[in-house]
Amino acid sequence: MVRSLWSAASGMNAQQVNLDTIANNLANVNTVGFKTTVNEFKSLLYQNIQTKTTSANGDTKPVGAQVGLGVRNASMISIFKQGAANATESDTAFCIEGEGFFAVRGNDAKTYYTRNGDFTWTLGNNNTLILTTTEGLPVLSTTGALITLPRDQYVTSRITVTADGTVCYPDANNVPQPMGFAIGLYQFNNPAGLNKEDSTIYGVTDASGPALNEATNGALQRSKLLQGYLEQSNVQVADEMVNMIITQRAYEMNSKAIQASDEMMQQANNLRR
């Protein structure tokens, strides 16, 4: 009966973490570029109830006698399913259609990746403009360089970006002309292995593999960039609400198991009276 107490307690802990994950998904339902997270569970070690593998007659038993000792959270996986593309009036809003990620430079000078294309032009050093995220992280080009412009030579509202990320500016005839650089798009062999640094910022790990540059890797199917759109969160509210109900019921069942074990031990103690 003590095993039942610990197994049910582990179930309550696991379902609490599951509920935390669901709550975080719902909290970020309107976060641009957010990817829903799901919990994966695994059973704990099994204990042998009967060590002998033969019957009283010496015959080999077809099955053993083991009991599980509970559950724990094995992993939390981000689901990189495409979110809806919503139109916006911003000229520096970009939505990726495909498997690509934007590259940004973190405050620690390392490169991170995101699906959040809500960018803006920020005043930099030497009278320049730098394309950055709303948090101020510089966006990187296909060559891994900062995307900068002379402040006094360009009107940012006239800048356009093609589907392959090429940054253009209109000439005297108002025809967009390439400016010699493009917004970088990168893919991963296993995006689920990325380390979540923030709600929409991811770091490279051994599990994800190195970043693959779409501009230089011909084996990749290139993503499409949409200017004037933002990729919304891929959280499905109805699914999360159903998962919340299931999690709540599982938590209640585990608490009932603890209550039942406690009552059984209480009855066993009463036998002495």
Oligomer: single chain
Give the strand order, joined by hyphens, for the main sheet. 16-17-8-7-15-18
Find the count of extended strands (DSSP E, 2+ residues): 20
The tally of domains stands at 2
Residues in β-strands, percent: 25-35%
Overall geometry: elongated
Question: Over the alpha carbons, how many angstroms does the gyration radius reach?
Answer: 27 Å
Give the biggest beta sheet: 6 strands, antiparallel
What's the overall average pLDDT, rounded?
Answer: 89
Cα separation of the termini? 20 Å
Helix content: 10-25%
Structure overview:
This protein has 273 residues and is of the alpha+beta class. Helices cover 22% and strands 31% of the residues. It folds into 2 domains: 107 residues, no CATH class; 147 residues, no CATH class. Helix 1 packs antiparallel against helix 2. It is elongated. The model has no long low-confidence stretch (mean pLDDT 89).
Short summary:
With 273 residues, the chain is α+β, with helices and mostly antiparallel strands. The protein contains two helices and 20 strands.
